[in-house]
């Protein structure tokens, strides 16, 4: 069954540097990393020591507060270092990879014919629980919960976002098996959002409710689709899985192995070799991009939500995109003059950039101003297609007013849904951070 | 530019964090960022940002005010010379007006920005740009002959009590420019109303007839200006609010750049027209009415400060309603109340100032009810979800 979702409000940024639809096998990295900070609010507890030999799929750490939640190695090799940050917080677990992977064998399983408990147990023991996210709060799902529905968005609307149809087209069998497994985890429905590209390949997937999503970014965000399809109420849980991760779960059941394949699109105006690379989770970014200097920012993920990484670091756990954009640490004379610097995109009409709807912009990391008090109203609503008052919610988060946050819909939002709000914000506040702090407060106070 | 940049960097050295004059950095930064958009980069979250910033937004409003300001300079000179009699040229008029108005602007900016800078240093935050607009608005809505020290005192009151007392830009409840005017109006009424104050140097002229149209109407006399005069603004009035035409040009700039809310502007005019139409309809209902109630509704929209107030003051995002629905209600009530105050209160015929200040106070309440509706929707959804679970069980 297919239902259409049309989003009107939003903003599709057209940027220079889309990846060419050409899938290349990336060289095998020397080391791979799993970074616990990629899983928000997780407190990892290590199970293997430095120097230990591990197989792909071997547990390396688990969640201190939810022991069933295990995190496994994407490759086989030797655990090289555990990098720690402040207060000995584990930042990165780096694994020296073998030339070829040897997998831990979990045994094949027909998800559709197995009972729910066994499916769940298999997902957890293989470390695939890491791929399942929970809303509210946008954290790794607690396996003890039963979600009212599971949402998957194979819609790419973000700036320079990789094409989900292209990534999934050769993995349809694994995707279907993954859906069969996920179906067992919820008494409700599995919702799958598709756009024109991914619909070609996913229209015949069974066991899902298919939603054809149209409209500007953030229509592709799973949070927006949840809001339109079946909004989250207080006390409810829904789970979300990224489409490529569904195929990893599917492959687990088909082959009995944890095959942590990841397709990463290299995008952005500063990258020369803009292609899709087939690699493994946690690979070194240097293996797929050319050497860049300090005047280029490497972002693991999208330009709106990703993390800044260095050339010698690893790609994030969930990223299927690496964006290279110029650093903007230059001064601009009289940058405040209206109708000047029209090469910088603006959603407001104080620059003439809107006269060139087909132009592709080449943004830098410049803040284009300084942080100020919240003054301008109405701009946030334009890019947040939710029945939520963004400015009031942000103020409630800043004030730490739990009742107000609850009333204004904190359970329905995730930081990524506010990425465009942060982008257009005249006062240059770090709004995704504010929402994250609000969510963290809810986790500790309400749970 | 490169040379200036290097000089600036050198000047800024002692103000860097940990250096001797660190405390005064906001003041220097304000000047620096006026010349150069800083080299600050994003660190996390959205790595790219929109080209707009608060400075650009505020400057756009200043730009929108320029037509009205230039027209005001000419009109003040024109009103002066026409009462004086004799020949005069366009440049005479604009020169006379400029000579009066430029010092007012200088005083307003000097005093207001002085306080803003002091508070920025004191509180350790950057200087907010809001005063760029307020500082220009204040002289534009005062009578031309207001002594400069009174203007300065009004500015001090507006910035200190109207804004900084509430926590600075973004936190104030009342529009600061109107707070300044209200202060002057109640503190120095003889300088702010009557027949004499609206024409430059009226005291030097014998038998001046410098009443505003609203003043004339309130005293029960007939208006000697045509509707075209009222629209173009060749009438006595405050410094730069008389020309509805110039105000509409400004409104166009604000609406096209999305800096001003078209909802507030449109609903403001609708509100004023609605109230005026009700008054116009009184004779039909058997009430005789007076000059003010019978004044044609469309002329109500083009006289006095109504248009200026709705376009430039009601749209101040900080003191206005912040929700989209709230903006419609807020704008409508401003127009509606402004005409009502005009008609019912002959002692003070121009009602737009009081209407906006009143609605500034009510804006948070309007928002509260708009948001409550959203909250109720959400609660209703929870209840229906719970009911579904019950029936399922």
Automatic annotation (TrEMBL), chain A:
<keyword id="KW-0739">Sodium transport</keyword>
<comment type="function">
    <text>NQR complex catalyzes the reduction of ubiquinone-1 to ubiquinol by two successive reactions, coupled with the transport of Na(+) ions from the cytoplasm to the periplasm. NqrA to NqrE are probably involved in the second step, the conversion of ubisemiquinone to ubiquinol.</text>
</comment>
<feature type="domain" description="Na(+)-translocating NADH-quinone reductase subunit A C-terminal">
    <location>
        <begin position="263"/>
        <end position="309"/>
    </location>
</feature>
<keyword id="KW-0915">Sodium</keyword>
<feature type="domain" description="NqrA N-terminal barrel-sandwich hybrid">
    <location>
        <begin position="5"/>
        <end position="98"/>
    </location>
</feature>
<protein>
    <recommendedName>
        <fullName>Na(+)-translocating NADH-quinone reductase subunit A</fullName>
        <ecNumber>7.2.1.1</ecNumber>
    </recommendedName>
</protein>
<keyword id="KW-0813">Transport</keyword>
<dbReference type="Pfam" id="PF24836">
    <property type="entry name" value="NQRA_2nd"/>
</dbReference>
<dbReference type="GO" id="GO:0016655">
    <property type="term" value="F:oxidoreductase activity, acting on NAD(P)H, quinone or similar compound as acceptor"/>
</dbReference>
<dbReference type="InterPro" id="IPR056147">
    <property type="entry name" value="NQRA_N"/>
</dbReference>
<feature type="domain" description="NqrA second alpha/beta">
    <location>
        <begin position="115"/>
        <end position="258"/>
    </location>
</feature>
<dbReference type="Pfam" id="PF11973">
    <property type="entry name" value="NQRA_SLBB"/>
</dbReference>
<dbReference type="Pfam" id="PF05896">
    <property type="entry name" value="NQRA_N"/>
</dbReference>
<keyword id="KW-0830">Ubiquinone</keyword>
<keyword id="KW-0406">Ion transport</keyword>
<dbReference type="GO" id="GO:0006814">
    <property type="term" value="P:sodium ion transport"/>
</dbReference>
<dbReference type="InterPro" id="IPR056148">
    <property type="entry name" value="NQRA_2nd"/>
</dbReference>
<comment type="similarity">
    <text>Belongs to the NqrA family.</text>
</comment>
<keyword id="KW-1278">Translocase</keyword>
<keyword id="KW-0520">NAD</keyword>
<dbReference type="InterPro" id="IPR008703">
    <property type="entry name" value="NqrA"/>
</dbReference>
<comment type="subunit">
    <text>Composed of six subunits; NqrA, NqrB, NqrC, NqrD, NqrE and NqrF.</text>
</comment>
From TrEMBL, chain B:
<comment type="function">
    <text>NQR complex catalyzes the reduction of ubiquinone-1 to ubiquinol by two successive reactions, coupled with the transport of Na(+) ions from the cytoplasm to the periplasm. NqrA to NqrE are probably involved in the second step, the conversion of ubisemiquinone to ubiquinol.</text>
</comment>
<feature type="transmembrane region" description="Helical">
    <location>
        <begin position="351"/>
        <end position="371"/>
    </location>
</feature>
<keyword id="KW-0997">Cell inner membrane</keyword>
<feature type="modified residue" description="FMN phosphoryl threonine">
    <location>
        <position position="212"/>
    </location>
</feature>
<keyword id="KW-0520">NAD</keyword>
<keyword id="KW-0830">Ubiquinone</keyword>
<keyword id="KW-0597">Phosphoprotein</keyword>
<dbReference type="GO" id="GO:0022904">
    <property type="term" value="P:respiratory electron transport chain"/>
</dbReference>
<dbReference type="InterPro" id="IPR010966">
    <property type="entry name" value="NqrB"/>
</dbReference>
<feature type="transmembrane region" description="Helical">
    <location>
        <begin position="131"/>
        <end position="161"/>
    </location>
</feature>
<keyword id="KW-0739">Sodium transport</keyword>
<keyword id="KW-0472">Membrane</keyword>
<dbReference type="GO" id="GO:0010181">
    <property type="term" value="F:FMN binding"/>
</dbReference>
<keyword id="KW-0812">Transmembrane</keyword>
<dbReference type="GO" id="GO:0016655">
    <property type="term" value="F:oxidoreductase activity, acting on NAD(P)H, quinone or similar compound as acceptor"/>
</dbReference>
<feature type="transmembrane region" description="Helical">
    <location>
        <begin position="264"/>
        <end position="285"/>
    </location>
</feature>
<dbReference type="GO" id="GO:0005886">
    <property type="term" value="C:plasma membrane"/>
</dbReference>
<keyword id="KW-1133">Transmembrane helix</keyword>
<feature type="transmembrane region" description="Helical">
    <location>
        <begin position="94"/>
        <end position="119"/>
    </location>
</feature>
<dbReference type="Pfam" id="PF03116">
    <property type="entry name" value="NQR2_RnfD_RnfE"/>
</dbReference>
<feature type="transmembrane region" description="Helical">
    <location>
        <begin position="234"/>
        <end position="257"/>
    </location>
</feature>
<keyword id="KW-0813">Transport</keyword>
């Amino acid at each position: 069954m297919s239902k259409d979702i049309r989003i009107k409000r939003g903003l599709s940024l057209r940027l220079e540097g889309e990846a060419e639809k050409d899938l290349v096998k990336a060289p095998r990295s020397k080391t791979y990393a799993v970074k616990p900070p990629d899983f928000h609010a997780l407190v990892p507890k290590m199970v293997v020591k430095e120097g230990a030999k591990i197989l792909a799929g071997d547990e390396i750490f688990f969640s201190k507060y939810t022991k069933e939640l295990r995190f496994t190695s994407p490759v086989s090799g030797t655990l090289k270092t555990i990098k720690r940050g402040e207060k000995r917080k584990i930042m990165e677990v780096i694994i020296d990879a073998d030339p070829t992977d040897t997998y831990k064998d979990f045994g094949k399983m027909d998800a559709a014919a197995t009972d729910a408990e066994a499916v769940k147990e298999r997902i957890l023991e293989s470390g695939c629980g890491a791929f399942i996210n929970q809303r509210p709060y946008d954290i790794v799902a607690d396996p003890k919960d039963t979600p009212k529905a599971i949402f998957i968005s194979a819609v790419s609307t973000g700036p320079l976002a990789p094409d989900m149809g292209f990534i999934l087209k050769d993995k349809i069998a694994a995707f279907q098996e993954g859906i069969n497994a996920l179906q067992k985890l919820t008494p409700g429905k599995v919702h799958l959002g598709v756009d024109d590209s991914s619909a070609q390949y996913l229209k015949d997937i069974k066991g899902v409710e298919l939603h054809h999503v149209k409209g500007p970014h953030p229509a592709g965000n799973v949070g927006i689709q949840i809001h339109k399809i079946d909004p989250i109420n207080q006390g409810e849980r829904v789970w979300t899985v990224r489409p490529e991760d569904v195929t990893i779960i599917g492959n687990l059941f088909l082959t009995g192995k944890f095959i942590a394949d990841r397709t990463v699109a290299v995008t952005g105006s500063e990258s020369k070799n803009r292609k899709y690379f087939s690699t493994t989770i946690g690979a070194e970014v240097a293996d797929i991009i050319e050497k860049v200097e300090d005047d280029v920012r490497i972002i693991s993920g999208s330009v709106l939500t990703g993390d800044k990484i260095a050339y010698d670091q690893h790609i994030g756990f969930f990223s299927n995109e690496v964006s290279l954009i110029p650093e903007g640490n230059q001064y601009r004379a009289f940058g405040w003059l209206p109708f000047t610097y029209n090469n910088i995109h603006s959603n407001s009409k104080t620059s003439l950039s809107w006269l060139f709807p087909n132009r592709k912009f080449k943004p830098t990391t410049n803040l284009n101003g300084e942080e100020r008090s919240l003054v301008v109203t109405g701009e946030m609503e334009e890019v947040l297609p939710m029945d939520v008052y963004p400015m009031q919610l942000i103020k409630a988060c800043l004030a730490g007013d739990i009742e107000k946050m609850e009333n204004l819909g904190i359970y329905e939002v995730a930081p990524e849904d506010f990425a465009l709000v942060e982008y257009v914000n005249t006062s240059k506040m770090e709004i995704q951070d504010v929402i994250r702090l609000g969510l963290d407060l809810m986790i500790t106070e309400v749970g | 530019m490169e040379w200036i940049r290097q000089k600036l960097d050198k000047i800024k050295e002692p103000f860097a964090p940990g250096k001797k004059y660190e405390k005064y950095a906001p003041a220097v930064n304000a000047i620096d960022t006026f010349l150069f958009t800083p080299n600050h980069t994003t660190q996390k979250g959205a790595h790219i940002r929109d080209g707009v910033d608060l400075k650009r937004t505020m400057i756009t409003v200043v730009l929108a005010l320029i037509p009205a300001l230039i027209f005001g300079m000419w009109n003040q000179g024109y009103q002066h010379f026409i009462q004086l009699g004799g020949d005069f040229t366009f440049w005479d008029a604009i020169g006379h007006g400029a000579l009066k108005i430029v010092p007012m602007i200088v005083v307003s900016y000097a005093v207001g920005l002085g306080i803003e800078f002091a508070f920025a240093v004191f509180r350790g935050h950057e200087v907010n740009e809001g005063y760029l607009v307020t500082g220009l608005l204040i002289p534009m809505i005062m009578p031309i002959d207001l002594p400069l020290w009174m203007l300065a005192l009004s500015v001090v009151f507006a910035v200190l009590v109207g804004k900084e007392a509430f926590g600075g830009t973004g936190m104030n409840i009342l529009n600061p420019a109107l707070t300044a005017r209200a202060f002057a109006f109640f503190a120095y009424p003889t300088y702010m109303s009557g027949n004499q104050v609206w024409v430059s140097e009226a005291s030097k002229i014998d038998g001046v007839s410098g009443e505003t149209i609203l003043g004339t109407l309130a005293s029960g006399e007939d208006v000697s200006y045509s509707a075209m005069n009222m629209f173009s603004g060749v009438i006595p009035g405050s410094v730069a609010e008389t020309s509805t035409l110039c105000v509409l040009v400004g409104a166009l700039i604000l609406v096209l750049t999305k800096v001003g809310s078209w909802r507030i502007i449109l609903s403001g005019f609708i509100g004023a027209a609605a109230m005026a139409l009700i008054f116009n309809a009184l004779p039909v209902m058997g009430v005789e009415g007076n000059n003010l109630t019978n004044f044609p509704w469309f002329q109500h929209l083009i006289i006095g400060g109504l248009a200026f107030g709705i376009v430039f003051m009601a749209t101040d995002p900080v003191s206005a309603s912040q929700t989209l629905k709230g903006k419609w209600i807020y704008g409508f009530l401003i127009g509606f109340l402004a005409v009502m105050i005009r008609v019912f209160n002959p002692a003070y015929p121009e009602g737009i100032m009081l209407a906006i200040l009143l609605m500034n106070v009510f804006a948070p309440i309007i928002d509260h009810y708009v948001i409550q509706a959203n909250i109720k929707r959400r609660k209703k959804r929870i209840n229906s979800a719970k009911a579904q679970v019950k029936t399922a069980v």
